[in-house]
Amino acid sequence: MSELLQVNGLSVRFSGLTALDDVTFTLEEGAVRAVIGPNGAGKSTLFNAISGYVTPTSGTVHLKGQELTKLTPHEIAEQGVRRTFQNGGLFPALTVLENVLTGLHAQIEGSFLDILLGRSKALKSEAENIHRARELLKLMSMDHMADTRAGDLSGGQQRIVEIVRTVASDPPVLLLDEPAVGLSPVARAQMMEIIHRLAGEKGVGILLIEHAVELVMAAADRILVMAAGARIAEGTPDEIREDRAVLEAYLGHS
Amino acid sequence: MSTTMPTSRQRSLRTWAFWAVPVLLLLTPLATNAYTQFIVNGMLISILVTLGFTLVIGNLGQLAFANTAFFGIGAYASAILSAKLGLPWIMTIPLAGALGALGGFLASSAALRGIRSYYLAIITLAFGELMRWAYLHTKPLTGGTDGLPLPRETMFGISLSDDTLKFYIFLAVTAVLVKATLNLLRSRFGRAVMAVRENEVATASLAIPTARVILTTFIWSGFLVGCAGALFARHVGHVFPESFGMLHLIASFAMVLVGGLGSVLGAVLGAVVLTALPEYLRAFPGMEELFFGLIVAAVLVAMPMGLASLLRRLSPIFVERYYREES
Hints:
Low-confidence stretches of chain A: none
Strand content of chain B: under 5%
CATH topology of the largest domain in chain A: Rossmann fold
CATH superfamily of the largest domain in chain A: P-loop containing nucleotide triphosphate hydrolases
Transmembrane segments (chain B): 12-32, 38-57, 64-83, 89-111, 118-135, 165-185, 206-233, 245-278, 290-311
Largest sheet of chain B: 2 strands, antiparallel
InterPro entries (chain B): ABC_transp_permease, LivM-like
Helix content of chain A: 25-40%
Radius of gyration of chain B: 20 Å
Membrane topology (chain B): Multi-pass membrane protein
Keywords (chain B): Cell membrane, Membrane, Transmembrane, Transmembrane helix
Shape of chain B: globular
Number of helices of chain A: 10
Protein name (chain B): Branched chain amino acid ABC transporter inner membrane protein
Shape of chain A: globular
Distance between the termini of chain B: 29 Å
Oligomer: heterodimer
Order of helices and strands of chain A: EEEHEEHEHHHHEHEHEEHH
Distance between the termini of chain A: 40 Å
Strand content of chain A: 15-25%
Number of domains of chain A: 2
């Protein structure tokens, strides 16, 4: 498996507080790596630092050998590292189809002037991408909801549409921030299947923050355990289950 | 709130209806007297003013109140270019639009420096007042309190003080600019504008350059309203600083809200209704402002989403979408 994402010595310090402390790992094609740890462990800061929302104090992030560290969030997304948000990043007033189309923004051709004048170049690319968005929704059996306002969907449907939107442009790397939070057991199972399919069939490298232990154990190939901003353990789900440092981080010293 | 989508037949009906409206309007001069014609001309200007305003505060969701500043910039640009440089008025329209766009660029630079919500509101209000101060204190250029009259001019052998001729020019400019704005909104650009309003952080995660979206929206808004300013200069024939004060801003804001925030259809409806209303209320001298206020308040209480929401309930052809299936 080829390496997609390389995170090297990534640290984030906010005036004295170390939110992320020298984190190093790699993510391979088709791999699912979970990031777990108690609240305040630095999981979200890790995601924000990789996706450009927080500037790392030191360390680097590379995608297929190309440095992403100095880029802005939209440039990093354009390079192919895309993410979802813990509290949901859908646009409630837009329809499901329109939401998925925002994920294809950089794929749609035509300059501002082409769009303004309604030139066929822009219209053709728009039509092609609408077709593509509808196909993606069909894959998730969401095509009948295409014209529903995203804000009117159930929590589980919103999570799924957000993932469809995030992967619409076929990004090689996907960061999922608590995709199963607040989901029913049925929706959780569906989410797990989606994660498996993306990694297994499309070879997407997935980094996953999740608190639902059964989802983490079942979905992840490897688990990165964090506490107080630092990596405290790393390994397969079975190895992590046995790890003393992990037990201490969660349950305290015995 | 479930919405039904227009079928392809309804969509072609909508396209057809869009162009039918201005074509039918071509006949208005036959059916109206000079007074009504003047009012209708004013409506066409207000449509552009309201459209530019609703794009920024409705679609983009930025609390920027520099709209009247763009309007004044456009009107003075047109008057100065006509009166001082002797440019044919028709040529001053795109130039006024360009200067309005420059105003939009300036207003967006505040938003892009992270000045948002109430702070953006106050700084853009100050921009408007600063412009008014500038019109008053640059007498050689703007005529100060005396204002600046537009020179007499003819087009096609007809005087440009003729309201019927002005009507056809205003109608053409307004129809083309409304159509161009619809093209923008029903594209990746329009979706990006809405996305910034809904969740700016998530928008950037989709490879959408949010700063450029904000900048471009302000510039296009300034362009629309700047062009409207040029029409207004010829409409009244003489520009005065007091036309571009708080009163105009509040009236435009009312048009945006009565029509429906962030809706092109709403901008048109708000502008038409609130331009016509005061004319009908002239029958009640001394009470017109009171009635005007009451009617605006009643519409907003009954229909917080504006008059456009009423039409949307009547037929799906009025539902505004941010993509375009037909090519």
